[in-house]
Amino acid sequence: MAHFGNLGSRQVSGDVQDIRGTVLRDSNDQKLGTVDDLIFDHDTMEIRYLVLDSEGWLQGGRFLLPVERVSADRNHEDGLTTDATRSEIKASPEYDQVSLDSDQAWKKYEQEFKKYWDDKPIMHIKGSDRIITPPEEPAAAQPEATTTSGTGSQERTREINAAQLFPERMADILSDPAPDSSKVTLKPKSVARAEEAASGVTLLKPRWWESFENYLRENKSDIQGNCSQCNSRAA
Prior knowledge:
- The protein is an alpha+beta fold.
- Helix content is 26%, strand content 17%.
- Strands 1, 2, 3, 4, 5, 6 and 7 form a 7-stranded mixed sheet that branches.
């Protein structure tokens, strides 16, 4: 089982930009706080959560956010942004740093924490923190119907077929209906748009984010050597 730990007061090399101290803003460019600490996997050195100092607006003082909810701030080169609102943060499980001292306690806390945020699925425009409005499906084709007017004459409702909704011809591409790995599969526009939107769910991180994670990987042995839980697992 993966063991998570925090960076705490550990000093980092001067040639690496420390994520701690980075300002986090919401989608309205309002400051939510600064990164006070980070929680990462001690096996992969991948950052999973950010601990943020609310600087007074939150009663508990500090709050936790999954890294999936933060991205590079386009308006501030050295900052981070999130789609999370203050009301969502206030309602989220309060950060419990003590639980990190026990794998069992952390697992229990993380399950509750992840359930809260996982119940709020979002999609973003690729490379942006703007939320996507799911595309509407095309109206279903209506069969031809016959109605009788007030004069007794019959009027026909024009039938709409699939060729009118999707006029692109497929014969040149799929002349043979038999499946083949060399052929191109065309999908309805609504499906294609939804898949393209889904590809932007992973938010873009700042250029210095990867450098910091690389720093953690390069110092993995030292970090694990100073972790009581990592040492107990290795024994």
